[in-house]
Amino acid sequence: MQISAKLTTRLSELGAELRPGVSLQEHTSLGIGGTTDEIVLRRRETIPAIMALLADEGVPHRFLGGGTNVLADDGELSFVVLHLASSATAMRVEGNAAYVDAAADLGATVTFCAKQNLGGMEGLIGVPGSVGGALRMNAGAYGTQIGPHVREVELYRAASGRLETLRGSEIRFDYRHTSFAPEDVMLQVKLELPSKPFEEILSGIKVCNEKRRSSQPLHQKSAGCIFKNPPGHSAGRMIDELGLKGHRVGDAMVSDRHANFFVNAGHARGTDMLQLIDEVREQVRSAYGIELENEVIVWRN
Ligand code: EPU
User: Fold this and answer.
1) CA pair distance 22, 153, nearest whole angstrom
2) DSSP labels, 81-128
3) Coil, strand or helix: which one is 156?
């Protein structure tokens, strides 16, 4: 991706940092993806101007949060990635409200709130990624989803080109899906959490961690579950029943621990992972008549 000198200067005036030649292998939990330029956004009030600038200059872009649910193509990528810098004061609590930057780590947020005796998010403890990513896809685990705790979201809204604050009631949170537009950029969230003694939250966290450790390949490179669960079915169970654990295309492999986790078992390429996804989807379709929908976000060139 070629960034003009004029754009580089203007970005720097707007407090954004341009990092050329960044590898998405190092910025995604799958460890897969080609290279491109990264723009780190440091001043939230300049985001509308930066987005307008990229549109004027015709620079295609994608927004990268924690990189834990993204499968990017190989080679030189045809888009730049935008990334929100995290601030030193990413989280604060006032009564039962927690104000958290979208760039903050989700697990760190759960722990921070627990220390302030605010619970309700124990199930989310091992979900990797940023708070912004969790909001966008309404991340969930062990009976908890982030959506019901959301009272306000501050975001850059692609439709208006402005920074806006939405009330929780104005946002639809469904299973692994929300009403945010793909180009919206999450900036900050206000969560409302129930008061709970720290020790009680901690024991809930320990139970979830234990369940996760016993069923998921936590020490391998993955994007969590590859497919959403179809209503009334478990994608992992179906893939397992088809005997596909360990099935691989190159170094892209169906985990032998949890069949809905596809891992990078070495130097998997994006094309390997995409082919594995297609093969598994096809086998599930022909055996069960069910079309699995990706949970992982695919960034094709
Ligand atoms: N199962 C198998 N074989 C497998 C995997 C699962 O038989 O290889 C069976 C399990 O024994 C269980 C059922 O399938 O009876 C469901 O498995 P599990 O409890 O692991 O839950 P899941 O539906 O596969 C969902 C979320 C996970 C979340 C867990 C725990 C989705 C797509 N996945 O997994 O979220 O951690 O529940 O709440 O909704 C993610 O979204 O990336 C993710 C990891």
Assistant:
1) 29
2) EEEEPPPTT-EEEETTEEEEETTSBHHHHHHHHHHTTB-S-GGGTT--
3) strand
- Measured in Å, residue 77 CA sits from the centre of ligand 1 at 32
Percent of the chain with pLDDT over 90: 96
* DSSP 8-class letter at 294: B
Q: What is the pLDDT of residues 43-78, one digit of tens each?
A: 999 999 999 999 999 999 999 999 999 999 999 999
Instruction: Give the C-alpha separation, 233 to 237, whole Å.
Output: 8
| Distance of CA 179 from the midpoint of ligand 1 (Å) | 24
Q: Tell whether the model's pLDDT for residue 1 goes beyond 70.
A: no
Closest CA to 67 of 17, 8, 22, 112: 22
19 bridge partner residues: 38
Cα–ligand 1 centroid distance for 66 (angstroms):
21
- The residue whose CA has the least distance to atom 24 of ligand 1 is 236
> CA neighbours within 13 Å on the CB side: how many for 251?
13
Claim: this prediction has a pTM higher than 0.90: yes
Q: How far is the CA of 236 from the centre of ligand 1 (A)?
A: 6
How far is C-alpha 113 from the geometric centre of its chain's CA atoms? Answer: 20
Nearest ligand 1 atom, CA 236: 5
For ligand 1, atom 28, the nearest C-alpha belongs to 141
Report d(CA 185, CA 155) in Å as an integer. Answer: 5
